[in-house]
Amino acid sequence: MPTNTESNAGISSVLHEQRVFKPGPEFSEGATIKSMDEYEKQYKIAADDPQKYWANVASQYHWFKKWDTVLEWNEPFSKWFVGGETNLCYNALDVHINTWRKNKAAIIWEGEPGDQRTLTYLQLHREVSKFANVLKRRGIQKGDRVAIYMGMTPELVIAVLACARIGAVHNVIFAGFSAHALTERINDSHAKMIVCADGTIRRGKSLNLKEVVDEALVDTPSIQNVIVYQRTKETIHMQDGRDHWWHDLMGLASEYCPAESLDSEHPLFILYTSGSTGKPKGILHSTGGYMTHVANSFKHVFDVKEQDIYWCTADIGWITGHSYMIYGPLINGSTIVVYEGAPNYPQWDRFWDIIQRHKVTIFYTAPTAIRAFIRAGDEWVTKHDLSSLRLLGTVGEPINPEAWMWYYKNVGKEKCPIVDTWWQTETGGIMISPLPGATPLKPGTATRPLPGILVDVVHKDGTPCQANEGGFLVVKHPWPSMLRTIYGDEERYKTTYWSEVDGMYFTGDGARKDNDGYIWIMGRVDDVVNISGHRLGTSEVESALVSHEAVAEAAVVSRPDEVKGNALVAFVTLKEEFEGNQKLREELRAHVAKEIGPIAKPDDVRWAAALPKTRSGKIMRRLLREMASSKEVKGDVTTLEDFTVLEKLREEEEESK
Ligand code: PRX
């Protein structure tokens, strides 16, 4: 975990963003929270009595049995809605099918080759019930772990909801992970079954997933059955007795499967996320609390209306796909778009084309995608009619103000608010975000915490930082969708999240609050660097670089320096029409000095054809740090999106010597 947390002395935030965008009256009028006054009032009510607030929120949803106690807090272990019983699948499907929503589209699916399917709530309910029966027939019982490894098809949603329906614990493993990663996750969670597809389609090519599963299962004693959904129809090996076709089993299954009444603390899912060191952490989420915050935050942050068509571009293999593609939207009865493939296939306007054709109204994506679109050129966006859009969102990393502005102007046509949502796999749901009808927006900040979420920016000793002083982002009070533990490793749970700042949940992020109480995320604390006694958020230097017209993307890391302690190294990807040379290098250094100050001037600027990223799109800073210090790259690199990127960086480094 974090390496630079001994003290926050000198974490300095030097990005000064002055632009403010107020919500338009036509937007505020229809929103659930219409003004900052209303927000402040709600925030205070929730902060004064969080248990009362959360009990009110929870009572919006269906409980088979009401809870006795809202919160049992035995630091750092929480139990929410103790004694209550509910079911997320019931809340996502059954509550809608006795209303007119039964014929409303739940899922609009588009495959990468262009094939399309729509499932109404009634149809989805039927498929999920059938698959829940399939799971039971294959020996899955309440509490058993089921690994899921498939591309983005409706069957992935069906498999997840079927688990939730019978109380099996789903463990979705992103379909880009290797056999080794799969084995590791299956064994850590002792999964009894894996649900997979024969293959998935990406950039026009079919990827054989079953082959990866076969390789992974050589060393997974807990797996008893494999269910294979046929997507690509490629030739695969089916092992007698172990492997079964989805369509064969579904053909025999009954449509009747009542949702189990589950204890509020019954485990819902495990989702693995990488720590900065060691093996991946199995983040464990449970039932009642997760449902309460995820469903309610979806409703308010996305200000969702009955007629909205909502599209979140995340993969279901990540937390965003769990909380804001499946559970949040479906519990609210929304229509979701699910897209199988790449954003740039067959060309760079695939996303805009999907928005235009399906009349998407709410669009939620990641800054890394936005930066890729900027690089591809505005013409891909401007040739499409995006007038159906009314709200935009981002998640996953700090968004550079320039990327925010591009998104606001080119995609939102200056009429759609942008909700920059800060949260983590561990938090389960959104923690800091604008409320679109209320919060004046500033490009680059997730703004204020949601009501009921008591976050703060503090010193190492837990005392609050002054306005504009950098510190650690913490959560001071348990919240319903917080992780319950790291699966099978309570000690790691305690040390990772609860030992850095006494009595508070430590997020691992550095942040500052401005004079308006807006929270500016400065990146992970281990990405904060100390230069000549000044600490800088590397993301701020990156923002400065990206605001230069030549720069498409930048990653800034530190390397040891005898005189300054650390020196800054910037890896820069240029827009196509620019060429990396000494003159531009000097220009960029001067640009950063102008934007932030001479202390932030990168010592080295290195050109990179592309930056090495994890499959979820995060820049692999550890690798870059090792490159910057010219050390051999060590450790687990299985999450590299493109291994050639690393090679290219190495070659470029050799050439520049
Ligand atoms: O550093 C923060 C960054 O992503 C981390 C959480 O990553 P993960 O668990 O993969 O979840 C991503 C999707 C919720 C955080 O510790 N992060 C996430 N959202 C933002 C962000 N940084 C800045 N602004 C955000 N909106």
TrEMBL record:
ATP binds at residues 396-398, 420-425, 509, 524, 535. Mg(2+) binds at residues 546, 548, 551. Its cofactor is Mg(2+). Keywords: Acetylation, ATP-binding, Ligase, Magnesium, Metal-binding, Nucleotide-binding. Acetylated. Deacetylation by the SIR2-homolog deacetylase activates the enzyme. CoA binds at residues 202-205, 320, 344, 532. One of its GO terms (cellular component) is cytosol. CDD domains: ACS. Signal peptide: none annotated. Residues 540-618 form the AMP-binding enzyme C-terminal domain. It catalyses: acetate + ATP + CoA = acetyl-CoA + AMP + diphosphate. Its EC number is 6.2.1.1. Residues 39-92 form the Acetyl-coenzyme A synthetase N-terminal domain. GO terms for molecular function: acetate-CoA ligase activity; AMP binding; ATP binding; metal ion binding. The modification N6-acetyllysine is found at residue 618. Residues 101-479 form the AMP-dependent synthetase/ligase domain. It is an enzyme of class 6 (ligase). Belongs to the ATP-dependent AMP-binding enzyme family. HAMAP family: Ac_CoA_synth. Catalyzes the conversion of acetate into acetyl-CoA (AcCoA), an essential intermediate at the junction of anabolic and catabolic pathways. AcsA undergoes a two-step reaction. In the first half reaction, AcsA combines acetate with ATP to form acetyl-adenylate (AcAMP) intermediate. In the second half reaction, it can then transfer the acetyl group from AcAMP to the sulfhydryl group of CoA, forming the product AcCoA. NCBIfam families: Ac_CoA_lig_AcsA, PRK00174.1. This is Acetyl-coenzyme A synthetase. It comes from Chloroherpeton thalassium (strain ATCC 35110 / GB-78).
